[in-house]
Design brief:
Length: 241
């Protein structure tokens, strides 16, 4: 479970990037995180993962405070950032072994997991190539493989399907469903509303740093008394008009 309690973030000036955000992301569900560009999604995720400090409030991962107990919190989540352009001068296999070393994945299990994940994502034959030679989609796949290597209980995914080919996107969605069904947390942001509508058990909608809605799609339609698609409800909900 992820608990976000009364979190603020201000980049300067009077307008807060995140304004008193309180949100509980439960175990056993896929939660979609929605909002227009600049709504505060990536800022929230970067605070959740310890990339950015909180100005106020607390965030805990299965009871571990991301600021008070960062090492314990970071051991139990995996984070896919919105840009996969990292560790470009490493070979794919070196990057995965580096991640395995950080999370102390045993050598025998590590090799098995690396082979399984990279064959599923069709990058096994490229593991001895440098990541800087990879396409955007291949870089996304190597980052996702690294995140899943230590089998974290909590998945935090920022636009994880961007750049993936249809087969790999399908495989990742199946993995997300299985992980949640096993009682774990899957929290992901996306601009693909059809994917969210198809995949998510619940959604959280943010705009201008404030939480507008959190619940199931049926609850959203009931709240706004409509049978429209998620796209229409979302556009109405986040309209500045």
């Amino acid at each position: 479970m992820i608990d976000i309690n009364h979190v603020d973030k201000n980049y300067g000036g009077n307008k807060k990037a995140i304004d008193n955000l309180t949100l509980t992301i439960p175990d056993g569900k896929i939660t979609g995180f929605l909002g227009p560009n600049g709504a505060g999604k990536s800022t929230t995720i970067k605070m959740m993962t310890g990339v950015l400090p909180l100005d106020q409030g607390t965030i805990t991962m299965n009871g571990f405070d991301i600021e008070e107990a960062p090492m314990e919190a970071k051991k139990i989540f995996g984070y896919v950032p919105d840009q996969p352009d990292m560790f470009l001068r490493l070979k794919g296999i070196d990057y995965l072994n580096f991640i395995g070393d950080i999370y102390q994945v045993p050598a025998s299990l590590r090799q098995e997991k690396i082979e399984e994940l990279t064959k599923q994502f069709d990058i096994y034959d490229a593991l001895n190539d440098y990541i800087q030679t990879y396409s955007h989609g291949m870089r996304q796949k190597i980052i996702v493989s690294g995140v899943l290597l230590h089998d974290p209980a909590i998945w935090i995914l920022d636009e994880p399907l961007t750049g993936l080919d249809p087969k790999s996107a399908y495989i990742l969605k199946e993995m997300m469903r299985k992980h949640a069904d096993q009682g774990n947390v899957v929290f992901f942001s996306s601009h693909g509303l059809e994917v969210v509508e198809q995949l998510c058990d619940e959604v959280a909608v943010i705009n201008q740093g404030k939480l507008l809605f959190h619940g199931t799609l049926d609850e959203m339609r009931e709240t706004y008394q409509t049978g429209d698609s998620l796209e229409k409800v979302f556009l109405e909900l986040t309209s500045d008009a």
